[in-house]
Amino acid sequence: MILIDGKKIAAEIREELKKEVSQLKKKNNQAPGLTVILIGDLAPSQIYVRMKEKAANEVGLKSEIIKYPNDVEEKTVLDKIDELNKDSLVSGILVQLPLPKHIDKKKVIEKISPSKDVDGFHPINVGNLSSGYESTVPCTPLGCYLLIKKYEKNLNGKKAVVIGRSNLNGKPMMQLLLKENCTVTITHSKTKDLKAECLEADIIVAAVGIPELVKADWIKKDAIVIDVGINKTEKGIVGDVAFDEVSKIAKALTPVPGGVGPMTIACLLKNTVECFKRLQN
Q1: In order of start, what are the domains of the chain with their CATH numbers?
Q2: pTM of the predicted model, to two decimals?
Q3: In the prediction, which pLDDT does 9 show?
Q4: Which of 62, 80, 96, 171 is flagged as catalytic?
Q5: 52 included as an active-site residue
Q6: Residue 173 neighbours by CB under 8 Å, 6+ apart
Q7: How far, CA to CA in Å, does 79 sit from each of 50, 74, 111, 230, 235?
């Protein structure tokens, strides 16, 4: 079994981006700029934002964090996004989720210019991805896709099962695999015989948020298994896949942690650079 080392592959992507950003600075006399808006004091959000800032600085991006208290008015946030949309030094805008209940997530996502939407959540980017046009792809499914392609160059005709139907992971993952000519089945917690669906799959992407749902007897021999899940349990952080037993069957498998997580941040940086290049052109 191949352990898919997300940390190592993410480090390789960051190293490539570092060289590219250096070249872009020389060519444009400007570095790509990522601005993150952080609202409130949720510990996980603060940790994620610090990790994003550290990674952005590492590759040479111009990084800025704008912090607001939990009770900030929605209008203040929307006005700031408007300002950032018009700022030529900002190539990527990210509003850290989740948001306080009094702020409408849909309004916030739709306020970000599609050309600066590094999360890939704006309806225009979602529609472009679905239609097969150029778009910014959400970071986690993009990271999963790059991990799969690292170990299976030709996905033509492969049977893929995506467990989870969220807008953040499941749906964009389906679109990426369809573009590679996979036959894709999108499943979820209400699917009648999930085990039977998985047993047919050459590729499984588990992103449903149920600890160790996917067992060894769900896996076809030599399947590639990507585990997006991060679940807190009594025995610590585990994924949606029962790692110890599935590792004996799968051809390749991501660990949790150390698999998809590092790729998500690397792909955020990648999206920021791509947004910068499109804006320059």
Answers
A1: 29-113 (3.40.50.10860), 139-261 (3.40.50.720)
A2: 0.95
A3: 97
A4: 96
A5: yes
A6: 141, 144, 145, 162, 205, 207
A7: 24, 9, 9, 34, 44
